[in-house]
Amino acid sequence: MPHVTIYTTMICPYCSRARHLLQRKGVVFEEIAVDHDREQMAVMRRRSRRHTVPQIFIDDLHVGGYDDLAMLDARGELDRLLGSTDAG
Predict the structure, then answer these.
(1) What is the pLDDT of residues 5-45, one digit of tens each?
(2) What gap in Å lies between CA 63 and CA 57, rounded to an integer?
(3) From CA 24, how far away is CA 29, in angstroms rounded?
(4) Rounded CA gap, 1 and 81, in Å?
(5) What was the pLDDT predicted at 1?
(6) Which residues are within 8 A (CB) of 15 and not within 5 positions of it... i.e. 6 or more apart?
(7) DSSP state of 59
(8) What confidence tens digit (pLDDT) does each residue in 50-63 have?
(9) Long-range contacts of range 74-81, CB-CB < 8 Å, 24 or more positions apart?
(10) How far apart are CA 68 and CA 38, in angstroms?
(11) What mean pLDDT do residues 59-72 have?
């Protein structure tokens, strides 16, 4: 399974939704909290070229935020990116 990274903050409802979607799919992911870590926030901004959370990566592929993740899931494309043969 690919390495999934999600940049989050504690108070972000979209971060919670992204975590729950990934957990529901059984995805083990690395969560990097950026709310009190300027260095990690700068890394997230460089990698994603965005300033909002969550920012989600599958390996080096920038998926985007929660809406992007949910759209991929609705289209059935998320399972392919995750290397899953199960549709959920």
Answers:
(1) 999 999 999 999 999 999 999 999 999 999 999 999 999 99
(2) 5
(3) 12
(4) 9
(5) 83
(6) 6, 8, 9, 53, 54, 66
(7) T
(8) 999 999 999 999 99
(9) 78/25, 79/25, 81/2
(10) 25
(11) 98
